[in-house]
Amino acid sequence: KVGFLLPIVGLVGAATYSAPYCDCRVDKLGIPYTWKYDNIWLDIVFILDTSQAMGKTALEDAVGLIESLNDVLVTDPKEPFYSRVGVISMADSAKVIYNLNMTSGDQVHGKAEITDTLEIEVLVAFEAALNMFNDGLKTRPDRVKARQVIYYLTDSDPKNNLNGINQFKASKGVIVVNNFLQEGEVEQPGLKALASDGYYFSNDNYGLALQAFCKANCFCQSDKDAYGGSDPAIKASGGCYHPAPVGVPYSKAKQTCVNQGGMLAAIHDMGKARFMQQLMNKARTDYVWIGFDKTDDGQWRWSDQSRDFYTNWGMYEPKRSDVAKCAFMDGTTDALKWAATNCQAGLPYICQYTPCSVGNKNC
Questions:
Q1: Which pTM value belongs to this model?
Q2: Integer Cα distance of 292 and 299 in angstroms
Q3: What are the helix (H) ranges across the chain?
Q4: Measured distance CA(46)–CA(345) in Å, rounded
Q5: Would you state the pLDDT for residue 202?
């Protein structure tokens, strides 16, 4: 670990900075503000509940929802951004209707009917979806970077141990649950637990479903850690991060991040600082450069070009020395104070990257 001390007292400024990535907002009509439906690039498997728990009317609504969503998504692999869509009809066993090959205009209507099964086995359906994803990667290995989404349209209470599903949610995928409630029925806590955070909603909700695809499309690759914001469904709205534990001068740290398509991590609130402290602990380092340096005109500038006024300088910081032009953070205490030092000092650093998102594969 790097070993030198700095003061750790001072006041923390107010955080006014919002998450900079993955704006999935829509207007009152469901029209996206800044993103486009046809730039979504996901691998999606719909699980269609055909048990008695679902009921005929709900099944018809669910089928209509799948077809409507599919017609909006681009499924042509010749396009730069496209999604692969699969559909599994689930009763006492899984029946594949589309094997990640559903295209615009394809129908589910007439291919799924209510069965005598009382409720579906949620875990069996999950395993069938995983098999479809795995087989799909064998035929299209270039889709390894695409996020996997399992979308349940169901009213069956999951009675299984969800550990395997939770591992999927924590690593490479998203579980969306659309609970088609019968009239007068109370929502089932088990279905909320089945869904990834922020991905549960009830009945036929076309607008929320499309917005969920935008949110699911915001993620980091497995070699980076995601930092989120106020919406738990958008895991990487604050960017993707990777620590470099070897100490180097500030300019080398900054250039290395840029060469890798990122920048030195910027800190705009205490939540972000605590997240970076966790990365520092994993990398076993006490101090890191942050993307904050003093220009020739004497002004401190952020690496992300923001004009946020948040600071967390330690006592007597920043130093007025002509050579103390680069900032670092002390991760040895929960105060997480900053100090200015000579830019030639050798410190570890953390790079910040733009996440994968709708319309962006450079991640």
A1: 0.88
A2: 10
A3: 56-72, 122-139, 163-170, 189-194, 206-216, 250-259, 270-283
A4: 54
A5: 87
